[in-house]
Amino acid sequence: MKTVLVLCSGNSIRSQLAEGYLKFYSSQHISISSAGLLEKEINPYTLMVMEEDNLDISDHHAKNVKSLKNKRYDLLITVCDEAKDQLPRSIKKKKHIHLSIPDPDKFEGTPEEILEYFRIIRDWIKKEMIFLVGEHLGSGTPAIYN
Q: E-strand spans in the chain?
């Protein structure tokens, strides 16, 4: 079974969105997980915007990358610059893809404006994950399987 890790700073928004979409769009023969440099609670807006897209990730929980020592991944996806810059050496990977996605938790505004910004980030991550599944995780795609 192929393994994928999505890594972010807190595992509360971007990596959770990415994990949800990767699980939805990829094969059952791929193990997908996410983690953060820190372990934060999943942001309520994350659950809301995924529910709007008919994906229930309420069973997800935040994980700290320290719990993943000495595991090997076929594909590592970092979804923020902090995760890329502070990537623990203990994370072994065959291939690393980096996406520099802004942190919606830092966005300031009314609750409606914040929700709209989360939707923008959700849609951005969804498109990126669909592309990655087709390019790197789809059947017959040799990118990480050679």
A: 2-8, 30-36, 72-78, 92-98
Looking at CATH, the fold of the domain delimited by 2-137 is given as: Rossmann fold (3.40.50)
List the structure tokens of 12: 């509360």
DSSP 3-61: EEEEEESSSSSHHHHHHHHHHHHS-TTEEEEEEESS--PPPHHHHHHHHHTT---TT--
Per-residue pLDDT reduced to its tens digit, 10-35: 999 999 999 999 999 987 789 999 99
What pLDDT digit, counting tens, does each position of 57-100 carry? 999 999 999 888 778 999 999 999 999 999 988 899 999 999 99
Q: How far, rounded to the nearest angstrom, does the alpha carbon of residue 91 sit from its chain's CA centroid? A: 15
Amino acid symbol at 133? V
Entry pTM: 0.90
**Rounded-to-integer distance, Cα 143 and Cα 78, Å:** 17
Domain boundary assignment for the chain: 2-137
In terms of Cβ atoms closer than 10 Å to its own Cβ (0-12, 13-18, 19+), residue 29 is exposed
